[in-house]
Amino acid sequence: MGNSLTLTLPEVVLSLSSLALLMVAAYAGDRTSRVVSWLAIASLLVAALFIPGIIAPTGIGFDGLFVADNFAAFSKVLIYIAAAASLIAASGWFSRGGVFRAEYPILILLSSVGMGMMVSAGDLLTLYIGLELQSLSAYVLASFQRQDTRSAEAGLKYFVLGALASGILLYGVSLLYGFTGSTMLSEISVALGRDGVSTGELFGLVFVMAGIAFKVSAVPFHMWTPDVYEGAPTPVTAFFASAPKVAAMALLTRVAIEGMGPATFEWRQIVIFMALASTVLGGVAAIGQPNIKRLLAYSSINNVGFALIGLAAATREGVASVLFYMAVYVVMTLGSFFCVLRMRDAAGNPVESIASLSGLSRNRPGFAAALAIFMFSLAGIPPLFGFWPKFLVFNAAVQADLTWLAAVGIATSVIGAYYYLKIVKTMYFDEPAPAYEPSTDRLGGALIMAAALFVSPLGYFSIPLIDRAAQNAAGSLF
Amino acid sequence: MIPTFAFYLFATIVVASGVMTIASRNPVHSVLWLILAFFNSAGLMLIVGAEFIAMLLVIVYVGAVAVLFLFVVMMLDVDFAALRAGFARYLPFGTLLALVLLTEIVFAVAAWNASGVATAAKAAPVNQNVPNIEALGTVLYTRYLYIFEGAGLVLLVAMIGAIVLTHRTRRDVRPQNVSLQNQRRPKDAVRMVDQPVGEGVKL
């Protein structure tokens, strides 16, 4: 028991600090929001130090319910970074639109606990509890600006569809439990390998995959994404597009590889379909979008599709490429959203239309250059770092004899490139729209610059580091 | 002898109070009959040795659900006479559905008995020496401690969420401020006046 508790230290630290901060928020009120926010970032940092695999050794806790391996460590580091970034994004943004309420950092912390549970799940029960903890916090965060009808609508929509997805997932879990006799991923894998995949097990597998696919917003379970991303407050959208995506993707990978390894042939068909549908639909549907947040939502659907191509390979290289992809994706997406956060008209009201970006390069050359770097990188255009994870993913697919999948993936990435480039064209070649209000947020500017440097060709220097970590992480699943 | 007597007592009262829940004209009486039904079914559970379920019935159903019903019944302005008006009209249809349900239950039990599954395998093995509250607690707080605590966090988030989304500070009400009340001294509030005769009181 003692050892199990040491393994769960990151979650324990985050839970306890969220409880303590909740007390601060309850008694001192919204005046302390900024302090609470910074303390939350500090506790994410402390929790990151305690992740098994960073300093402490890895292991398995609570009789296999909790798995603290390198895979979980890699995902948790990404999740904590993304959560901290969305905390930094929030404090300036909310206080301009009214009150920055102290519950925001607390909900983000609790959501991070849930995401930690998700990526460390060695059992379908842990998986479900983690998923619910993360989702429930997310529903509240989506409608955090409850005076705003769009925000309230986003929260309601997310809640209803999320509950449906949880139901589908649980149905699959119950079928898997009934037909394999266990909820432990390791034992499910043994049962699937023993005498082939029975019809009941296949049904369970399909439902579990569908439930998790909703959380990564892969087509055809993506319908909620554009509406929720558009309606939710921008810092919350930045959070949704980064941390929970990593967590759900890691969860999908672990369940597919560790829990359903012997049924690879069966789930590979699902993953390939979702990958192709996501890349195509994410590319085509984004073209007509006038709203930058909706566009980034389709961009996230598109990117998830590419990551799924890596998962379809079902090899160690494939899993490593998924992790690498998510790492770079998080930086690119957070960078883009930090840029969106700075889009305010002269009166200081947030604007979200792509048309307002027209001619940005003449008023704000630095801003335009940063956004252009993120867009080029999201499109995967070679000198930028966004190209490398796409290359790794396709490479893994080719090595797993899925050359046709890689070829189709490359073709669809060209469709996607169209709308990313359209934004660059709007910024550099269109007649200037009214200028944005000059931003005073220095920290946000510094983060944008750091993210832009990371996805610029300079990012290639970090390949050995990330690659070693991703290979280690992937190794712990095989 | 005593268990048999207790069983028939509890069972009779459950059925009778169930009927009264539907039949009584006053909705508050209905809820009170319902509470009586819950208590007696808890007694039935105790007799079969499922003391955990008995406690749950009392704590959850009587303590929370029935009290909630009572609040709803008392606070909502529902015209129960109008709700009952169609009773005779819907009776044949309701009876039909009830009959279908009854037949299905009979069939299901018959199929279960005919399926040839060994009776011992139908129920989870029970350790007779350990009370079931203790057995549940042992599993919940050791093997599944992690998930149990996780579920606790989920409930906490639900609570925070409900408050965040619905609570608003109102400016038009004057809430009680206890520390302000305690700080108030007699010299702020009380004035000794030597009232002269024939003059009005100065307020």
- Helix content, binned percent of chain A: over 70%
Which regions of chain A contain 5 or more consecutive residues with pLDDT less than 50? none
Write down the overall mean pLDDT of chain B: 86
Q: Gap between N and C termini of chain A, in Å?
A: 26 Å
Name the average pLDDT of chain A: 90
Reported for the largest beta sheet of chain B, the result is:
none
Rg over CA atoms of chain A: 21 Å
| Element pattern of chain B in H and E | HHHHHHHHHH
Describe the structure.
The complex is a heterodimer of chains A (478) and B (203). Chain A has 478 residues and is mainly α. Chain A has one domain. In chain A, 74% of the residues lie in helices and 1% in strands. A two-stranded antiparallel sheet of chain A has the order 1-2. The mean pLDDT of chain A is 90. With 203 residues, chain B is an all-alpha fold. Among the domains of chain B are: 78 residues, NADH-ubiquinone/plastoquinone oxidoreductase chain 6, subunit NuoJ (Four Helix Bundle (Hemerythrin (Met), subunit A)); 39 residues. Chain B is built from ten helices and no strands. The longest helix of chain B is centred in the middle third of the chain and has 28 residues. Chain B is extended and about 100 Å long. The model of chain B has no long low-confidence stretch (mean pLDDT 86).
Summarize the structure.
The complex is a heterodimer of chains A (478) and B (203). Helices cover 74% and strands 1% of the residues of chain A. By secondary structure, chain A is an all-alpha fold.
Characteristics:
heterodimer, A: 478 residues, mainly alpha, 20 helices, 2 strands, B: 203 residues, Four Helix Bundle (Hemerythrin (Met), subunit A), 10 helices, extended
Which helices and strands occur, and which strands form pairs?
The complex is a heterodimer of chains A (478) and B (203).
Chain A: H1 2-7, H2 9-28, H3 33-49, E1 59-61, E2 66-68, H4 70-96, H5 103-119, H6 124-142, H7 149-180, H8 185-194, H9 199-216, H10 224-231, H11 234-259, H12 264-284, H13 292-313, H14 316-341, H15 360-363, H16 365-379, H17 387-399, H18 403-429, H19 442-455, H20 463-475
Helix pairs in contact in A: 2-3, 2-5, 3-4, 3-5, 4-5, 4-11, 4-14, 4-20, 5-6, 5-11, 6-7, 6-11, 7-9, 7-10, 9-11, 9-12, 10-11, 10-13, 11-13, 11-14, 12-13, 12-18, 13-14, 13-17, 13-18, 14-16, 14-17, 14-19, 14-20, 16-18, 16-19, 17-18
Chain B: H1 2-23, H2 27-47, H3 51-75, H4 80-84, H5 87-114, H6 119-122, H7 132-143, H8 145-166, H9 178-183, H10 186-189
Helix pairs in contact in B: 1-2, 2-3
